[in-house]
Amino acid sequence: MFSWLGKQGGGRERGGGSDVVQTVTGGLRDLYLRKLLPLEEHYRFHEFHSPALEEADFENKPMVLLVGQYSTGKTTFIRYLLEQDFPGMRIGPEPTTDSFIAVMYGESEGSVPGNALVVDPKKPFRKLSRFGNAFLNRFMCSQLPNQVLKSISIIDSPGILSGEKQRISRGYDFCQVLQWFAERVDRIILLFDAHKLDISDEFSEAIKSFRGQDDKIRVVLNKADQVDTQQLMRVYGALMWSLGKVINTPEVLRVYIGSFWAHPLRNTENRRLFEAEAQDLFKDIQSLPQKAAVRKLNDLIKRARLAKVHAYIISYLKKEMPSMFGKENKKKELISRLPEIYIQLQREYHISAGDFPEVKKMQ
């Protein structure tokens, strides 16, 4: 049903459009290595913000990240998209997926564990090694010869539960990992179950970790065929109300309504709506390969703006530090005065306040 996604996207990539994308990507890589990377290294940008980009970050296919609470249908959504099972797939009403699974194209079907995956220079996951074995033991890559995966890769994330125990038992910073993926993927899909609209504390923190990537976020209200039209209207309103408390954006998020699995609809009242919504969502995903070069350019520009502001901040702090005595006291004073320093730098260099990193994070 959705094989057109791989055929159309892959076809365009193999045609003349592929040469254009490769030329742009190569130019971006050279520009980063010659101009931006030396600046980042000189001002220790990688210690404060994001690791250095590698060749695989420029060459990889567009990626889609799926995030949601347990049993919202993330793994089933991938199976629906691929029209086949993939290695490591587990589906059930209980919390089944306890790992990050990168579903990617491969000539033969198989899986690669996390520790082997992060040393592969052809995969864009090398920098994930900093999250340690607790994460790498919960990370794997499923490879299979699927037409859709010729154009995109899909990241399945663990189902999010509520409660402090769940957060502690992971053994790694879940939100930091999500933030790392969010900076590199082309689309973030938040899945909600029509019967579970409450947003747990950890899910709320996960959504907040996507701050700055709002243009990549899409919302899917899944299993909508299990309610009738009147209930669906109320469910949609409740979902928008819940999201409004977590995502602070002036624009209304695009919400796709449907039931994304291969079984017949339980309630057929809204069949035409679900079909139209599914077509809109998959057209959005289909457009990612053609927009890949533009997205990489956009992300590189955002990174360059942040690196420039970071350089101004570090230069100012270094200039204000005494050469001999009283360094510790001066350091504490400058850190406490960081909001004032931000305002001063904005006026001096005519920089927008939105380009500055969070004060608490820098402090």
Overview features:
8 strands, 16 helices, about 375 residues, Rossmann fold, alpha/beta
Describe this structure in words.
By secondary structure, this protein is of the alpha/beta class. The protein contains 16 helices and eight strands. It has an eight-stranded mixed beta sheet with strand order 3-4-2-5-1-6-7-8, sandwiched between helices. The model is unreliable at 6-16 (pLDDT under 50).
Short description:
The chain is of the alpha/beta class.
Task: Outline the secondary-structure elements.
Elements: H1 3-14, H2 16-42, H3 45-48, H4 55-59, E1 63-68, H5 74-82, E2 100-105, E3 110-113, H6 114-117, H7 132-136, E4 139-144, E5 153-156, H8 164-169, H9 174-184, E6 187-193, H10 201-208, E7 217-222, H11 229-246, E8 255-257, H12 271-286, H13 288-320, H14 327-336, H15 338-349, H16 359-362
Parallel strand pairs: 1-5, 1-6, 2-4, 6-7, 7-8
Antiparallel strand pairs: 2-5, 3-4
Helix pairs in contact: 1-12, 2-13
| Low-confidence region ranges | 6-16
Topology, number of strands:
8
Q: Identify the strand order in the major beta sheet.
A: 3-4-2-5-1-6-7-8
- CA-based gyration radius: 22 Å
Assign the CATH architecture of the domain at 61-291: 3-Layer(aba) Sandwich
Tell the overall outline: globular
The number of distinct helices, counting runs of at least 4 residues, comes to 16
- Output the structural class: alpha/beta
Pfam families: DUF5600, Dynamin_N, EHD_N
Domain Dynamin-type G: 58-289
Main location: membrane
GO molecular function: cadherin binding; GTP binding; metal ion binding
